[in-house]
Amino acid sequence: MQRGKFITFEGGEGVGKTTQIRLLSEYLKTKGIECISSREPGGSPWAEAVRHVLLSGLADKMGLGPSGEAILFAAARADHVDSKIEPALEQGKWVLCDRFMDSTRVYQGESDDVAPELVDSLERIAINGHKPDLTFILDLRADVGLHRANARRKASEAVDRFEREDITIHENRRNAFLQLATRNPDRCRVIDASQTIDEIAFDIWRTVENVLIKPAKAEQEKRDADQTSEQNEAEEA
Ligand code: TMP
Question: How confident is the model at residue 99 (pLDDT cuts 50, 70, 90)?
Answer without folding.
Answer: very high
